[in-house]
Amino acid sequence: MTMLEQIRKGRAPMPRRVMLYGVHGVGKSTFGAMAETPVFITTEEGTNDIECDRFPLATRYADVVAALSTLYSEEHRYENVVIDSLDWLERLIWAEVCAKRGVETIEDIGYAKGYIFALTQWREILAGLDALRTHRCMGVILVAHAAIEKFANPETDSYDRYVPRLQKQASALVQEWCDEVLFATYRVHTRTS
C-alpha cells in the first residue's frame, strides 16, 4: 500500500485531554467530578467533600504510576481519569528525582538540572495517560492550581497573568500535550461609591 492510499478523510474523534487550572476554591475538582463516570487519582485531599470515585491518596510517584497501570490493565467502568492536582503531583515527581539522585531537594542538583530530570517522570505520566486514552478510550482531565507571574509582552507593557502552578518546563510540556487548557476564576465586579 502506498502512502497516498493510506490517507484517511474526515474526523477521527478521540477522548479529550483537558487541563483546568484556576484559583483556590473555584470548583476545579467539581468540574472533574462532572465528567462521565470519572475516577480520581488524588495527590492532595481536595476531593473529600465531593461525591466521586477515587484511588487512595497518592503519597509517592509510584502510587500514581500504579493507579494508571491498574486503569490500563484491569476491567473497569470508568470513562475519564482525573489527576487532582498536577502541582501536588509535581512534588511527588521531585521527590522521586531526589531519591534517584541521592539529594535532599530538587535544587541540590546543580544548574537547575533537577527540573530537566523531572521531565522524564512527566513524560512517563503523559505516556500512561496516552495509553488510557488510546487503548481504553478514556478522557483525561488534569487539575492544577494557579499562580501569578509577571509577563513581559514584547508588544505591550508588562503585566501580571495567571499560569499553572508548575515549573515552567513541566508546564509547557503538559500544556502542549493537552487538547484544551482552561482557566477558571471568579468574576469580580467593583463599584465606586
User: Approximately what portion of the residues adopt beta-strand conformation?
Assistant: 15-25%
**Beta-strand segment tally:** 7
**SSE order, as H and E?**
EHEEHEHHEEHE
Estimate the global geometry from the Cα principal axes: globular
Unreliable segments of 5+ consecutive residues? none
Mean pLDDT, rounded to whole units? 95
Rg estimate, integer Å = 19 Å
Q: What is the CA–CA distance across the termini?
A: 74 Å
SS summary, helix count:
5
Helical amount: 25-40%
The biggest beta sheet reads: 7 strands, mixed
Summing up helix and strand content along with how strands pair, one would put the structural category as alpha/beta
In a few lines, what is going on in this structure?
The chain has 193 residues and is of the alpha/beta class.
Task: Describe this entry's structure for a reader.
With 193 residues, this protein is an alpha/beta fold. Helix content is 36%, strand content 22%. The protein is built from five helices and seven strands. The protein has helices spanning 28-33, 61-73, 86-101, 113-136, 168-177, and strands at 17-22, 38-42, 53-54, 80-84, 139-151, 159-164, 180-184. Strands 1, 2, 3, 4, 5, 6 and 7 form a seven-stranded mixed β-sheet that branches. A hairpin with a 7-residue loop joins strand 5 (139-151) and strand 6 (159-164). The mean pLDDT is 95.
